[in-house]
UniProtKB/TrEMBL annotation:
PANTHER family assigned: ENOS INTERACTING PROTEIN (PTHR13063), NITRIC OXIDE SYNTHASE-INTERACTING PROTEIN (PTHR13063:SF10)
Keyword check for Transport: no
Record-given protein name: RING-type domain-containing protein
Keywords in alphabetical order: Coiled coil, Metal-binding, Nucleus, Zinc, Zinc-finger
Renumbered residue ranges of the record's region Disordered: 234-262
Source superkingdom: Eukaryota
InterPro entries: NOSIP, Znf-NOSIP, Znf_RING, Znf_RING/FYVE/PHD
């Protein structure tokens, strides 16, 4: 009789309690609102962005953080370029070695054929026979039994030699691929380890990337756009002074010390810009406006409501956010990769 509940070990599958205790497979868990970073936080240091700048996809960074990250990426690119140059040099040397082996094989086949040691056709003869078959030339009835005379010049000899070497090179590469193929499923043996061949080195592009996006996109210093938020001063000043001076309820560019405790707002409708609000950045003037004001005021007139500067549709970039304000929305998700067993 099988035991009950958590002590039941006779089943062929894991129970829920056993699965939770066993560190198997990949586990995912969505984080709550407390784990989401603030809307004005840097994607690298996770603190309130100082001198904020944005990439072309709308990810927010501190100016110092993104400059430091791009500098480190460029240093790593220089190191990778040295490795690529060494790999390219090794690839050229390997090609030269294979060409030399192919040339030696053609000469060896020719010498064996001349000495009567070779029973098979040489590579050059096979190439010539294939060439004749492709041309489809036949012998006329009137010329049967007549010995044909071949006149070769220097160019034809060079072409035939090159074709024979190319055929020998293809044969060598085929033999090398067959030797590298694992005959048994014993991948732990060094001689049978599968080889992950790298593609052409010319297709590898080394560029600085934006790590906040998934997948990462190309990021350069020229594509960075400064961001200017409008802040509410009601949190740092008494309510009486804010009521008496409604015109000064928001400031466009406050200092870093005063903006730490202030809330970013839309300069038009004075709505707070949080994770639950979609905001757009005007690349031409660096102002941040909420979606409602952008759709109703900026896009129809193609003009910024703060500085009256002309704005094109391609200059309106949505600022990325980590959450959406809903329980099931956002990208705040943690993943833990466990051990995967193989039978």
């Amino acid at each position: 009789m099988a035991r009950h509940s958590k002590n039941n070990t006779s089943n062929s599958v894991f129970s829920y309690a056993e699965y939770k205790k066993l560190d198997y497979g990949t586990k995912k868990q969505r984080l709550g609102v407390d784990s989401m970073k603030d809307r004005l936080s840097c994607a690298l240091c996770l603190q309130r962005a100082r001198d904020p700048v944005s990439c072309s996809e709308g990810h927010l960074y501190c100016k110092e953080c993104i400059y430091t990250d791009l500098l480190e990426q460029k240093k790593e690119i220089k190191r990778q370029q040295v490795k690529l140059e060494a790999m390219a040099k090794e690839e050229e040397e390997e090609k030269e070695r294979r060409k030399g082996a192919a040339r030696e094989r053609v000469l060896k086949d020719f010498e064996e054929r001349q000495l009567g040691l070779g029973t098979k056709k040489t590579i050059g003869e096979r190439v010539a026979a294939e060439k004749e078959d492709r041309k489809g030339k036949g012998v006329e009835d009137g010329t049967r039994g007549v010995k044909r005379k071949f006149d070769f010049d220097q160019d034809e000899v060079e072409v035939a030699t090159r074709e024979a070497e190319e055929a020998a090179l293809r044969q060598i590469e085929k033999e090398l691929a067959e030797s590298r193929r694992a005959k048994l499923p014993a991948f732990w043996l060094p001689s049978l380890t599968p080889d992950s061949s790298v593609g052409p080195l010319k297709d590898i592009k080394l560029q600085t990337l934006c790590h906040a996006s998934s997948p990462a996109h190309v990021l350069t210093l020229k594509s960075l756009v400064p961001v200017t938020f409008a802040f509410s001063s009601s949190s740092s000043q008494p309510s009486t002074s804010s009521a008496s001076t409604p015109a000064s309820s928001s400031t466009a560019t406050p200092t870093n010390s005063s903006s730490e405790s202030q809330e970013a707002i839309c300069p038009s409708c004075k709505k707070g810009i949080s994770n639950s609000v979609i905001a757009f950045l005007m690349r031409s003037c660096s102002h941040v406006v909420c979606k409602t004001c952008t759709d109703t005021l900026i896009k129809p007139s193609h003009q910024c409501i703060v500085c009256d500067k002309k704005v094109k549709d391609k200059d309106i970039v949505e600022l990325q956010r980590e959450g959406t304000g809903y329980a099931a929305g956002g990208r705040a998700e943690t993943t833990k990769t466990g051990v995967a067993f193989q039978g």
